[in-house]
Amino acid sequence: MNNIRPSAADYLKHAKYFIHILFSFTMLAARRGPISLLRDMRRYPWLFILLRAPLLMGRLAAGRTGLYREANELLISFIVKQMIDVLVRTLKRDDTFILHQEMVPPEISTAMGLSVWPAELLSILLPLLDSHAAEAYIDRSENEGIPPDICSHVKMTLGIVLSGEMPPASVIVSSNLPCDGNMTGYEITRRKNNAKIFRLDIPFNFYNNRAVEYFAGELKRMIAWLEENTPGRMDWERLRQICEERNRMAEKEIELWEMISARPAPMAAEPVYLGHLWAFNADPGNPAATRFFHRIADMTRRNLESGVRAVPNERFRAVLWNPPLLHFSELFRWAEEAYGITLVIDSMTYNSQPLIDTSTPDTMLRDLGKIIMQGPMARHTRGPAENYIDDIFRIYHRFNLDMVWVAGHIGCKNTMALNQMLREACREKGVPLLIIEYDLSDQRICSHEGIIRQIDHFMQNVMKVNRNGEDPPDPRRGREGKDFTTIHYAYRSEE
Q: Is the pTM here over 0.85, yes or no?
């Protein structure tokens, strides 16, 4: 058990970042104007949920100390500030505003002078801030006839659209990835907005030059369509600057990966995966994101050089594969304290694509296309199965891990069969595997307590440890004071 308590300096830094967040919210009011902001909050009730960012910062910081604690505080402060910038551009609702799917490279639209709003952004942020935030939107989708068995991420996004709380757009850009539910969702969004839509055709077989050239042609076609249907005009020099800034950000992240491969890890969990999730998907190529990664890498280096562990009681190292558990934001902090488990990296963070060649417009489009085609949401959902399984084992060895955690999101039909294949592969290689059965956004499907029971069962019966490093209880010995849940799962393993 981690018995180290935050110092006075830790609390002072927490207060500093708390003030930074409040200042960002104040700037939103100043830039929008109080009357406009009140109208915005009436039209978009989720703005009230965004005000809970300081509470999220507190949950992530609790029980952590030093630079690891500060990195989490810096992370939330950074996301809030960048979110405010995106909101200011979005709430203006001028003719440069477009709705953007997460599988479409935002660098291109940004270089064209367009204001990009990722439609899935709120479906990621809101459950992190409030574990029940998704429920009303999911219910709205299902009540409107959306099938209950599709991905809750899609259902929540559609619930926001159907509730009239998605910023309206006359232009939408989407793709044929990552799943049928997502594609159907964008058609519903188009009808709701009476909008024009461009759908990128990402090739299924994208492992050869022909596929790369085809998708680069699709991106050119998208640019021409946007120039025809929006005020945006491609500025190739601006795109080059954005791509070079993205390269600098990626170089710093690769440097971070090299440092966290050390054992014990000098940095872990949210600053690694959540920082990537925002910076590389919401606003890549933003110098502010590069500065964030510089600071996280610097904190990591200082811990590494000083021999300071991110998790003082580190005993096990894990990777999380598939989507993060959005509504259970404190899960990894709990795992650190309960079992000394350090989440080193996750599948959404790890992307082995090379840097973008910025020498010509064609090379930039080809490499931006490769990032999409070889990214986790394409590479692992389209197959072949070896992509999914081999990447897991590659990262398992690269980061010197002890176990693999797979977030078995019940709404992700694409990975259900893959996870069964993964079970067999892990069994053959002797790699401990935990597949957590849960729902990405809706904790009514599997509660936080249910997730914890699954982890307890795995750690006690596979890893042979109990919480806080104790040996797992033996139900045959009948010791007093034992937890019924622990006994129940241990007994099941004996059957």
A: yes
